[in-house]
Amino acid sequence: MTTEQLNTFTPTGSASVPEPGQVVQVRGATWAVTDVREQGLPRSPADESRAGLEHLVMLQSLAEDRMGEELTVVWELEVGNSIVSDRGLPEVIGADSFDDPDILGAFVDAVRWGAVTSADPRAFQAPFRSGATLEPYQLEPLRRALEAPRANLLLADDVGLGKTIEAGLVIEELLLRHRARSVIIVCPPSLAQKWRDEMREKFGLEFVIVDSARIAADRRTYGLAANPLRLYPRVIVSMAWLPGVRAQRLLREVLADAGRAGSARRYAFDVLVVDEAHHVAPAAPTAVGGGRGYAVDSQRTRALRRLADKCEHRLFLSATPHNGYTESFTALLEMIDPRRFARGADIDRTALDEVTVRRLKSDIEGREFRRREVGTLPYETSPDEEEAYARLDALLQASGREQGRSSLDIAALLLKKRFLSSPWAFARTLENYLADPVAPGEDYYDVDDYYAEVMGSGQSDEEEGQLEQPETDTLLATRSGTALSAATRRDLEELEAWARGYEARANTRLQALIDWLDAVCRPDGRHWTNERVVVFTEYADTLEWITTVLGSQGYDRDRLAAIQGSTPSEERERIRARFNADPAQEPVRVLVATDAAGEGIDLQTHCHRLVNFDVPFNPSRLEQRIGRIDRYGQRYAPEVHYLVPGRGSPGLWSGELDFLNRLVEKITTETQDLGALNPLIDEQITERLLHRQARRRAAATPDQQAVNEVLAGSRRLSRSLTELGRRYTERKEQMHLTPQAGRRVVDTALRLTSQPALEQVEPRAEVLELEEPGDVPDSSSDPETFRVPSLDHSWDGAVQGLATLLHPDRPRPVSFDERAAGVPGIVHVHLGHPLMRKATRTLRANLFSPQSAVNRVTAVVMLGLDETYAVSVSRLVLVGRGGLRLHEQVFVTGVRLRGSRVAEDRLTRILDRVLDPDEFALASPAVRDRLVTDWQANGAHLRTRLEEETRRRADRLQGMVHDRLHDRQQADTGRVHGIYEAFRTNLTESLERMRAEDQTNQDMLAAWLDEQRAQRERDMRAMADRLAVLDAEERREADAVARRYEDVRPFIASVGLVFAVSEQDAAAWEGKGR
Known about the structure:
By secondary structure, the protein is of the alpha/beta class. It is built from 32 helices and 29 strands.
C-alpha cells in the first residue's frame, strides 16, 4: 500500500462510483459493496448538465447491529454518500491537537474490541461478549461449530449444564464473524420469554417473539401484508404455533425468498435453534402384531423439517434427545444435518460423534456438581382410598373381560393414572366421563398403539391446564367406549362422590407433604425460614387441590405460588422471578407446578429441595423436573423427595404407588442416557397397571448401541477443555479487557453524546450473597458498582434491561467487573451488553468520520523507557466476496525517534501501559512542541518511516491471514468431501438393507398400518433421490466454500498515533523550553 493510499475519508465526486468489495457510507451507516450494475437507460440531459448512466449499487451492512443487512441504492441519487478509503497518519499535527491519553485509549479499546476474525477458528470472540459466568466445558460446542463449514450440532448435555449459554455463544460468534445475520429460535411456548430475556441479558442480542399479538401489531404499523418473519432478523416462535395455518403461510413467504436471484441471502434463516428438540421428533412407533411398527412423521416434524431445509446452521438442544426408538432419532438427526443422516437410514457412529456434544455432570472435571440426594416422605394410606382404588380396578377388569380382553385399555390406564395422582383429579375425570356421551368413534385407543404417545416416552409437551391436552382428548374420546362398560351409573356416581369428598381436605399423602413443608419452611409454626421448596404434579386438578388445602393451612398468596399450562407467560415469568429473588425480599416459599415449569425454567438460585407429588410415566419428563434445581449454579446438594406408602399399607393402591416409586428411584439415580430406559419403563408400567403379559425384548441393534454409546457422555474432552480455558484467558489479556477499560469506554461515549456520567455507588449488602447473615463483607474486594443516570431517548435500548420484572421503576446498578456476573441486583456490563454495544459503536463511528471528536494523536512521558518511540495503531480489514468480512485486526507498529524499528511485542507492552486507564497524563506543552517539530522535520521523515513500517507490517499480516484462509479453505473443502463420501456409502448400504428386508419380512410389513408402510416407502424414495443428486450437491457445497474466500481485498485505517517519551528526552526538551 502506497503513502497516497493512506489518506482520509474520500467524498464521492460527481463521477465517483464504488467497486465491488469497497466500503462505503450510505444513509449514515457503513456498507460493503457486493455488486454494481449500470442502469439500462442514461439519465436525461434535462436532469443533468450532461447525460450519464446511473448505477445500481448492492450493499451489505458491516455494522455489528445490522450484520449482513442488504440494501440496493441508485448511487447518483443518494445524498451524502461516500467511499471509505484507507485512512492514514496525520500529515500535520499541532501542539494543541493532542488528545488526552485516556480519551484516545477509550477509542482504541472500542476499535480493538470490535475487531473480529473468521480466519482463525480458535480465536473466539463471543465469550468476551457474554454476561454468563463461563466454564471451559461450555466452550466445546463453540469450538466444534467453528471448525466445521456449517455449525450443525446436537447439544445433548445433561440437564442443568447450560445448553442455552452454549447455543448463545455459537449464535453470537456466527453473527460476529458475519457467517450469519438472521436467527430463528423454535421452543416450547413456555420458554419463549425466557429465551428472549437470556439472549438480551447474557449476550445483548434482541429477539422478537412472533405470535398473534406481534402479527396484529405489525399489521397496524406496516400494513396488512406485514410479515414479522421478514421484518426482524432475530425471532422466536413456539413449536406449538409453527405447524399452524397462519405460521405456515408466513413461513412460505420467507422460504420463497431464500436463494432468489440477485440476493446474497441463500437461506431463509442463517441459524436455526430448536430447544427441547425431542418434541419435534416423530413419536415412538406404534405396536403392530406384538412388535414395533415404523415411526410416522407428525405435523410438527414435517413443519420443522421444511424450515430446517432452508437454514444453514442448526443447533438442536435436548438433554433427552433419544426416546429409545431409532426411527424417531434418525428423523431428528436428518433435520440437524441432512448431509450426514437420512430418515430411516443406518446411523453412522462417526458422524453421530461429530455432531453430538454430550456431557454428564459426572464427566466435568474440575467442577464440583453436587450429587443429588433422593429421599422419601413416608405416609400410611387410608382404608377408604384403598377400597376405592380396588373397586375401580375391579370395574376396569370386569369391563375388559366383558369385551373379551385379557388386559386393560388406554382409557383404563388414564383413569388409574389420575387416581394415583389425587382424589380430586380422579373426581374431575369422572365428572367428564359421566357427562353427556358422544357418538362412539373409531377404536383408536388400543394400548399398544397409544400408550407411548399419550402417556409414556412419546408423550407430547402440550401442557396440562390447556384446553387441549393429549390425555384429556383421549379420555373425552373414549368416554362412550368400553373402559367402564361393566360399571353402572351408580357405581361411577359413588366413586365420584367419594373422590369429591376430598375437594378441600387433605388425604394422608397430602398431609405428609404439609407436615414436611412446615418442618422446612416454618418449623415453629409461626416464623418463616428462608428455605424454598418446589412441588411438582402432573395435573392441573391436583395442583388446584394442593394449593387449596395449603391455602387453608396458612400458606397464603404471599407464601405460595403456582404455575400450570394455562398460566400466562408474563405471570409465569413474574412467579419465576419472585421464586429466584432473595428470600429476605420476596416472601414466597413454596412453588407448586405442573410440568409446564419442568422445561427450561431455572429455580436453583435459592432452592435445592424438590418434591414429586405424583409420578409421570415419561422418564424424560421426570428428569426435566429434577433439572430445575439440579443444575449449574446450585450451591447445595439437590434434594429430590417422593411420597411413599409405609409398610403398613398392603393394599393394591399402595402397592402400585410403591411400584411407581421404585421405578422413579431407578430413573432418578440413572446417570446415563434415558433413551435406553424409555422402552423398558413403558413395558413395565403397562405390564403392572394393565395386567398385560410381558413381551420378549429384542436385542439392541447396532444403531441403538451406537446411540447409547455416544449419549452415555464422554470424559475424553478434559485435555481440550484445559486448552480452551487457557486460550480464553490469554485472549482476554490480549484484548485489554479490564473493568477500568470498560468503564472508560462508556464514560467517554456518554461524554461524547452530552450525557451525564455514571455515578459510583456502594454495592448493597443484600446483593452480596453472603453465606452467613452475620458476616461483614470486605469492601475492598467488592466489584465497583455504578448507577446509570437518566439518559436521552437515543440510549433507551442500551438501558432497557436494567429494570426488572418485579421492580420496573428501579433500574439496577451496573458493574464492569466480571465478578458481578450472576450477583443478584447488579448488572454485569460485558462487551455484548447493550450499554457497551452502544458505547463502542458510538466511539468507532466517530473515530472514522470526517467530523471526529478526536485528533487521534497523544503523547505521554513514561518511566523506564530508554528512548522515545512513535507508535502507530492501525486496523486491517479483509473483505471477501459479497462484502463478507473475513478478518479484522488491530496491530501496532513503531519506530524510535532516533533509530530503527521496534519489535511488536515491545510496542504492544508500551501501548498497553500508555493507554491504561488513569495511568498517564498528557505530556507538557514543551514536549508536544518538540514532537510536532520532529514529526514535520526533514520532509516529514519520521512520518514516512512510520508509514513504511506500517505498510510492511500490514503486508506481512495480510500474507499470514491469506495463508490461514487458504488452509481453512482446504480444510473446509476436505471436510465437505469426507462428509459426502461417508454419507454416500451409508445411503447405499441402508437402501440395500431395507430392500432386502422387504423381501424377507413381508409378513411383518403386511401387518403394518397403511401410514407406516407409506412412511417407509417415502423414506426409501428420499434416500434414492438423494443418491441421484449427491454428486451435484457435493460440488455445490465445495464451490460455496471456495467462493467464501475469493476476491479478498484489504482495507487499512489508522486508529491513532502515540508518542511514548522517555524521561531523559522529556527533561531535556522541557529544559530547553524554559
